[in-house]
Design goal:
The protein contains six helices and five strands; from the N terminus they run ββαββαβαααα. It is an alpha+beta fold. The chain is globular and about 45 Å long. The structure holds FE2/S2 (inorganic) cluster (FES) (2 copies).
């Protein structure tokens, strides 16, 4: 079935059934591999994308639930929060193997948009659904604080 996905600011024609998980469409049909497949069960956060700015797990989000919503993936993540986070991620050297990191950045960006100066508790709550097998949590938290402080921080 052909339908249109609003992806990273552009309409994209796709051919998939309504019950197809969004993650399958992104990676399998569109070869947008920045969004990762981890558990497939909403447990790890590797597949986190934004739906109208809210972080969701693409592995359990069927196309029928997406409709006309704006889908943003790591490839299309823009804005001052995203820029600050990318800079801080690099400065802090947050990534280890990198597998979880696009999902981590999607969750972190959604957090900063709602809570520009998060506390440790805010960060832990917002990031609790993003697992990192390399254990980079302290560096991710430091990067989020650094991004919140801004370029002079
Ligand atoms: S792959 Fe979606 S939460 Fe793990
Ligand atoms: S950096 Fe390796 S899984 Fe997070």
């Amino acid at each position: 079935m052909t339908t249109t996905l609003n992806l990273n600011g552009q309409p994209v024609a796709i051919n998939a059934e309504p019950d197809t998980p969004l993650l399958w469409v992104l990676r399998g049909e569109l070869q947008m591999n920045g969004t990762k497949f981890g558990c497939g069960m909403a447990l790890c956060g590797a597949c986190t994308v934004h739906l109208n700015g809210e972080p969701v797990r693409a592995c359990i989000t069927p196309l029928s639930a997406v409709g006309n919503a704006q889908v943003t993936t790591i490839e299309g993540l823009q804005g001052p929060e995203a820029t600050a986070l990318r800079t801080a991620w690099t400065a802090v050297d947050a990534a280890q193997c990198g597998y979880c990191q696009s999902g981590q950045l999607m969750s972190a960006c959604a957090l900063l948009k709602k809570t520009p100066q998060p506390t440790d508790a805010d960060i832990d709550a917002a990031m609790s659904g993003n697992a990192c097998r390399c254990g980079t949590y302290p560096r991710i938290r430091a990067a989020i604080h650094q991004a919140a402080r801004g370029p002079q921080g």
